[in-house]
């Protein structure tokens, strides 16, 4: 296929003359080639896509000239085929992106939305290649140009602000990101009609920021406004409406509002099955969403059925279409979901098999330091530990630790179980585990702030280590802080708050503080009675 497409492009170039009619035909041909290359790129055939993009570029330059805007579009597409190759090819990607930017600025001006987008592409490239300062400088330069040429409150300035805000957020500079995203939203609200679809972009950006910070109460009204705008503009089964509903489902799940998430997930699943058919990949996504809501309600049988069906859809799609990165990654996720369901229920043999299959896929595609592999390794280690197979668990914990240390990201080693990273006396590794979680806690607090809900899990883990060594005076303040974080961010009736209360009650029982334990157990009973 690669040879056929290349020959086709060559023949087209040789046959084209300079008459207007032939020029029009040439334009159509290079557009077709560009579309072919896009499809190849999406399917993961990057080498073939690169060849076709080059042919389209050559044909387009002969047809419309080297400075036409369409040339910039092809250059940008071609650049990503170099980026997704070896590092040695990254300079060529940068060169093409800069060439595209020059054409766009010359044709449309420095403050045009397309010029802003070209700067965003460059900034994303610099971010991905760990050149943070250059990316930041590029976005700031564009923002200054827009403010100077368009004024402080122009809608295109809002776009520049949001790009810079998201750039800071991705580099964990949340305090710098928030005011920029707020200002972008404010400008868009003042510049656009209340029902303008463009407003959704800024609402969602702000909502996602708040959600990532654990500020769910601030995120929810923004996601709801976004959904309301789309419901007014589109039919109930429109993909954009479903997308907004998906945002709310994720927020409900994060807040422990599993019944609300279940109801909305069922609605989305019904729409997608009816509109797209039972075997569409989007249906697999919806099945997963509904399965998660069942899982966290303890309805494991229902969750297992849906996770299995999701896996079947994805495997079927992979066999019938081109094998590419995203499909395999999604299959790994489905395998992991099923492994957890079996693990929770004590079906260890099944869980082990699915964990290993998911791990193989992750390592094959992403190498030895794939962050998500740390979570799988950790869970697999705990599975062996529960069965008393300590020697099999030990190297898995070590490998998980090395992955996290390599990437300086410990969020992937957080699970809802507190027994993590060799906490048993059989290993006599309390000091190692304590050092691990102290280090993880420092990194996460720096990245997310001291009051993010995820911090509570690390506090629980540290407290658990102290509790198992009868160091109750050291464990108690950690458990109390975790409880306070959860109550402040999630509300007093959240399931994670119950977890905190249960851990504290267990501590008080172990320390012979039965009266305090009983008071907590009564509070737990009252919360559960309301659910």
What report would you give on this structure?
The chain is mainly α. It is 80% helix and 0% strand. The chain contains 24 helices and no strands. It has helices spanning 2-15, 20-42, 46-64, 69-83, 90-108, 113-128, 132-150, 155-170, 174-191, 198-212, 216-233, 239-254, 258-276, 281-295, 300-320, 325-344, 348-366, 371-386, 390-407, 430-448, 453-468, 472-490, 495-510, 514-530.
Please work out how many helical segments DSSP would assign: 24
Mean pLDDT: 81
Distance between the termini: 59 Å
Low-confidence stretches: 1-26, 408-428
Count of DSSP E strands? 0
> Which H/E pattern describes the elements?
HHHHHHHHHHHHHHHHHHHHHHHH
* Shape assignment: globular
Query: Biggest sheet: strands, sense, closure?
Result: none
- The percent range for strand residues is under 5%
Assembly classification: single chain
Which structural class is indicated by helix and strand composition?
mainly alpha
Helix content: over 70%
Give the C-alpha Rg. Answer: 27 Å
Main attributes of the structure:
single chain; 24 helices; globular; mainly alpha; disordered N terminus; 0% strand; 531 residues
Quick structural gist:
The chain has 531 residues and is mainly alpha-helical. It has helices at residues 2-15, 20-42, 46-64, 69-83, 90-108, 113-128, 132-150, 155-170, 174-191, 198-212, 216-233, 239-254, 258-276, 281-295, 300-320, 325-344, 348-366, 371-386, 390-407, 430-448, 453-468, 472-490, 495-510, 514-530.
């Amino acid at each position: 296929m690669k040879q056929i497409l290349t020959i086709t492009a060559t023949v087209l170039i040789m046959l084209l003359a300079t008459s207007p009619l032939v020029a029009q035909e040439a334009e159509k041909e290079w557009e077709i080639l560009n579309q072919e290359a896009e499809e190849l790129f999406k399917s993961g055939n990057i080498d073939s896509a690169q060849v076709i993009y080059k042919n389209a570029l050559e044909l387009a330059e002969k047809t419309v000239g080297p400075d036409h805007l369409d040339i910039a579009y092809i250059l940008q597409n071609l650049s990503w085929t170099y980026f997704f190759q070896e590092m040695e090819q990254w300079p060529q990607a940068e060169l093409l992106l800069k060439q595209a930017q020059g054409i766009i600025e010359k044709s449309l001006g420095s403050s045009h939305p397309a010029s802003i987008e070209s700067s965003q592409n460059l900034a994303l490239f610099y971010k991905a290649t760990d050149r943070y300062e250059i990316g930041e400088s590029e976005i700031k330069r564009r923002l200054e140009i827009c403010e100077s040429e368009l004024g402080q409150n122009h809608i295109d300035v809002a776009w520049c602000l949001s790009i810079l805000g998201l750039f800071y957020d991705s580099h964990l500079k949340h305090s710098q990101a928030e005011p920029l995203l707020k200002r972008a939203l404010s400008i868009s609200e003042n510049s656009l009609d209340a029902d303008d679809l463009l407003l959704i972009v800024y609402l969602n950006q702000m909502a996602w920021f708040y959600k990532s910070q654990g500020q769910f109460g601030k995120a929810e009204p923004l996601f709801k406004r976004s959904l309301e705008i789309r419901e007014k503009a589109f039919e109930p089964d429109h993909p954009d409406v479903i997308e907004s509903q998906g945002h709310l489902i994720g927020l409900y799940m994060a807040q422990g509002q599993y019944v609300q998430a279940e109801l909305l997930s069922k609605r989305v699943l019904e729409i997608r099955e009816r509109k797209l058919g039972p075997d569409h990949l989007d249906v697999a996504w919806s099945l997963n969403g509904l399965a998660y809501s069942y899982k966290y309600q303890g309805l494991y049988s229902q969750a297992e059925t849906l996770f299995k069906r999701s896996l079947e859809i994805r495997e079927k799609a992979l066999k019938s279409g081109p094998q590419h990165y995203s499909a395999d990654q999604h299959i790994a996720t489905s395998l992991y979901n099923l492994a957890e369901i079996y693990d929770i229920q004590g079906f260890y043999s099944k869980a082990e098999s699915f964990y290993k299959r998911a791990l193989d896929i992750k390592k094959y595609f992403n190498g030895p330091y794939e962050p998500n592999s740390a979570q799988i390794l950790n869970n697999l280690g705990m599975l062996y530990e529960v069965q008393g197979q300590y020697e099999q668990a030990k190297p898995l914990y070590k490998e998980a630790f090395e992955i996290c240390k390599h990437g300086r990201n410990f969020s992937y080693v957080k699970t809802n179980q507190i027994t993590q990273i060799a906490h048993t006396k059989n290993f006599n590794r309390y000091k190692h585990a304590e050092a691990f979680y102290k280090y993880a806690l420092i990194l996460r607090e720096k990245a997310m702030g001291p009051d993010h809900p995820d911090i509570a899990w690390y506090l629980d883990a540290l407290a658990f280590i102290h509790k198992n060594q009868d160091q109750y005076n050291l464990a108690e303040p950690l458990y109390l802080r975790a409880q306070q974080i959860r109550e402040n961010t999630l509300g007093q009736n959240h399931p994670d708050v119950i977890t905190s209360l249960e851990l504290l009650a267990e501590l008080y029982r172990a320390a012979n503080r039965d009266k305090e334990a009983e008071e907590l157990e009564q509070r737990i009973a009252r919360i559960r009675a309301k659910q």
